[in-house]
Amino acid sequence: MATDPIPRFPDGFLWGVSTSAHQIEGAAELRGPSVWDVFTAEPGRVKDGSTAAVACDHYHRYREDVALLADLGVDAYRFSVSWPRVDSPGGLDFYDRLVDALCAAGIRPVPTLFHWDLPAGLDWLERDTAARFAQYAARVADRLGDRVGTWITLNEPAEHTLLGHALGTHAPGRTLLFDALPVAHHQLLAHGLAVRALRAAGAGDIGIANSHGPAWAASGDPADRRAADFYDVLLNRLFADPLLTGRYPDGIGELMPGDVEADLEIVAEPLDWYGVNYYAPARVGAPRGVDTEWGGVPLPAELPFSVRRIEDRPLTDFGWPVVPEGLTELLTGFRDRYGDRLPPVMITENGCSYEGLDDQDRVTYLDGHVRALHRALRAGVDVRGYFVWSLLDNFEWAEGYARRFGLVHVDFATLERTPKASYGWFRDMLREQRGQRGHRLR
Ligand code: BGC
User: Fold this and answer.
1) What's the CA gap between 148 and 292, in Å, rounded?
2) 4 CA distance to ligand 1 centroid (A)?
3) pTM of whole model > 0.90?
4) Structural domains for the chain
């Protein structure tokens, strides 16, 4: 790891950590079921057979977790609101208490309204789910809007479409391949309708958290380049283009349901900022007639691309390559692609899974990515914030509790929290950023 200090970020830059409701809250008996509860109840869906019924028990231990955030010294905390909980009696009271505790600790609450835990019975293949989402967003804003100044509509509609509906490794477990495209459209429409509903409720500072990563062609061969372009369309542009330009990439709009032109006007409602979740780039080549793998997820041979290993990089415990400069490349590429249409950017997730309390590999990962982010800033990209995924080890979806992304270790038998070396590193880095003044820059 480089030992020279991390360059200074601008005053007012927002430093934070992220979590999501289903992954940490537990207290499943105090809310209605989500598609994830249904999915995890099916044998074989989650690798270690676990569920998120208790998870980190954050629902009951949120005060302890807010104290961890305060000691860490973050400006902001990104969490998600569970739609099934809000639909259950007293559900909004929990977020009321959480937001109060955050405000009392001087931490900006940044709620995400949908992080994959759709109420069971609802379905993103149905257009009506978009309208229901906007109504739910308005209810949350009515209740929390007096204390919440920054909002995120959706988390990673790309992964939710791909893993949940195209490949079936996430809830709701569908394997529709390209017939899953309406799920993407309805989530984008839900986003646009929610932006309008939030603004109508007086809320401002609205963004979305989309996952993005560079698509590297496996070689200069035209077939590999075409495959990498296709991957880029599917994972990056399918979601960023309609939001930022009001159009789908060529050939995609025709595949979407409904009055797409009219919907795109809603989808492209101007954003106050654009959230990017970055983990790694992908090396992509022409199909090879065999199944390949994407970050541990099997990809069927019939896709028009194949994902190749990035050989020359260290790997996280999840097998994901560590490529900090991919973040600089991604952000400068976005600036070049979208120009003035790109609003200020926040990195709403970045992190890695490693075992152990003395997690020097995570420190190296985060250190490298924060420096890479600063390079993007120096190259002229308007970046306003950076959130580490995640505060706590948690329920890592289909991987169960086997993958640990936290700055804080959670013993899932006792639920005891223990800060890791990376927590200390992040805390010290934040202090240095503030010039040892020991208080947050606003
Ligand atoms: C998701 C998180 C997840 C993380 C690590 C992101 O795609 O938003 O919920 O835990 O990646 O896999």
Assistant:
1) 43
2) 30
3) yes
4) 14-216+226-277+320-437 (3.20.20.80)
